[in-house]
Specification:
By secondary structure, the protein is of the alpha+beta class. It contains eleven helices and 18 strands. Bound molecules: flavin-adenine dinucleotide (FAD).
């Protein structure tokens, strides 16, 4: 096995998680090379930890869960195997970045559901960790997979054919999601559902006084549950909590007195107009909601603070948001930069009173650990929100990394105590998060599945508990 590649793992991790010893890094460039690697690892007794672009910031970056893994950096496996512009599917390899796929889709009737992370993150890697894009959760983008199993065999799921074409979900059980947030194989291709490019994208944006957070969640819930005629993922975000005392770190320009309602309304002119009218009605009960504006995403100028969000809403990924949040000028600096970053990702209720209750509980943790955080509600469904709690810290300040980790641990316990399970985890907690939310019989089944396919625990040991 060769030494560190461009990922240069050692302790590169913006989250400052416990350092893991890495046995080496491999950089296969084709399906056959991945198969050869798996066979070699079996012979040598090595464990393999595949990453796509390894930019899982806040959750462990490219660092494996356990020690002594060989990291398999799939960033060089970056072919678009097929693009079906009639049905709206792309079949792509793990190294295909948001930037690459979005550029291919420019001027077509389809666009990519892009995330707010860096343009050079992997569509496959994000989908396998169940990320959120700005149109919907990436759960809805993952249509089928190709994976190499621990015995070197290749399987496809969900209707993806071995020649790399996608025909839609075919009859019979679909094991696609068994590979998501799990470690059954090394995923070498994904069929991705694209988003129809809308006629109009109205970008909703408004800054609301902090004390209206619960009311705003309730109002947005009403809007979605009564039926938002437009597509697009609405967010309540940048709700900031600062500790009563101590030094804390936050991205530049954050105003703790306000939070933001943000998201695209996508569809025909008439659909977007109706959605805006319904949204305004729903927000009547929220004080300060008259500040909410809906702008045409295509008209937002580069100097406008909304520009990055307008690009994303149009399926154009950008690193501007990440640079701004983490105070860097290049995403390559993030894992060694001065600012640390951790993510805590709970399911959150879409309910005004429960929201206030949870915020009060989280404030006690913020005060206890003298560390600031920002909360975001990604309103991915009409049932529950995907919460994104971002914890920023100064990596060089004595004790600040420790306090940030303590806040994440404590916050997680408080949230679970309030009925909010974790939906996406990190290299330190994934096992506990899975075990605490899965029945003994469920864990037994996962164990049997894993040992049937990977009896020696060759692939991604410890990832999401298995
Ligand atoms: C400011 C900021 C904004 C962010 N915004 C968002 C956002 O809007 N939405 C969002 O979801 N995230 C966001 N993130 C978090 C993160 O950066 C993204 O989720 C990113 O896409 C994950 O990194 P990646 O694509 O390189 O995936 P990887 O790091 O390559 O993959 C993630 C994990 O999946 C597994 N895996 C990856 N590829 C394979 C494979 N081929 N086979 C088997 N297992 C595999 C590995 O365990 C790996 O650790 C943000 C982070 C920051 C700092």
């Amino acid at each position: 096995m060769q030494g560190p590649s461009r990922l240069e793992l050692r302790s590169r991790d913006v989250g400052g998680h416990r350092t893991r010893a890495v046995a080496g890094v491999e950089t296969p460039r084709s399906l056959d090379e991945v198969r050869a690697l798996v066979r070699q690892a079996t012979a040598d007794g090595h464990r393999l930890y595949p990453v796509s672009t390894g930019r899982n910031w806040g959750m462990g970056s490219a660092v494996p869960v356990t020690d002594d893994n060989v990291v398999v950096d799939l960033g060089g496996m970056n072919r678009v195997r097929s693009l079906d512009l009639d049905a709206g599917y792309a079949v792509i390899e793990p190294g295909v970045t948001q930037r690459q796929l979005a550029a291919l889709l420019r001027d077509t009737p389809w666009m990519l559901n892009v995330t707010a992370s860096c343009a050079d993150t992997s569509v496959v890697g994000n989908g396998l960790d169940r990320g959120d894009g700005c149109v919907r959760s990436r759960v809805h983008d993952v249509a089928g997979l190709e994976a190499v199993l621990a015995d070197g065999s290749v399987v496809t799921t969900g209707g993806l054919d071995p020649a790399g074409r996608y025909h839609g979900r075919v009859a019979g059980p679909d094991l696609t999601s068994a590979f998501v947030q799990h470690n059954l194989g090394i995923v070498t291709a994904m069929a991705v559902s694209l988003v129809p490019r809308p006629q109009t994208i109205g970008l909703v944006h408004g800054r609301i006084p902090r004390d209206q957070a619960g009311t705003a969640i309730g109002a947005m819930t009403g809007f979605l549950r009564r039926g938002n005629p437009a597509a697009g993922l609405m967010r309540v975000r940048e709700l900031t909590m600062i500790p009563a005392a101590g030094e804390w770190t936050l991205p530049a320009g954050v105003d703790p007195g306000l939070f933001t309602i943000l998201g695209p309304l996508m569809g025909s002119d008439a659909t977007v107009e109706l959605a805006e009218e319904l949204l305004r009605k729903a927000l009547i009960e929220v004080e300060g909601a008259e500040a909410v504006r809906v702008v045409d995403a295509a008209e937002v100028a580069p100097g406008d603070p909304l520009y990055a969000r307008a690009l994303m809403a149009q399926g154009i990924p950008t690193c501007r948001g990440v640079h701004n949040a983490l105070g860097v000028t290049s995403c390559d600096q993030i894992d060694d930069g001065p600012m640390g970053f951790l993510a805590l990702l709970p399911l959150l209720p879409m309910h005004a009173r429960r929201t206030e209750h949870i915020l009060a509980a989280m404030q006690t943790a913020v005060d206890r650990h003298a560390t600031a955080l920002m909360i975001e509600w990604n309103l991915v469904s009409t049932h529950l929100a995907n919460g994104v709690i971002q914890i920023f810290f100064d990596r060089a300040a004595p004790d600040a990394p420790h306090r940030a980790h303590q806040l994440r641990n404590d916050g997680s316990c408080l949230l679970r105590g309030n009925g909010c399970a974790i939906y996406r985890s990190d290299i330190d907690h994934a096992a506990a998060d899975v075990w605490s939310e899965t029945s003994t019989a469920g864990l037994g089944m996962l164990h049997r599945l894993k040992t049937a396919l990977d009896p020696d625990g060759l692939i991604s040991p410890g990832r999401y508990g298995a």
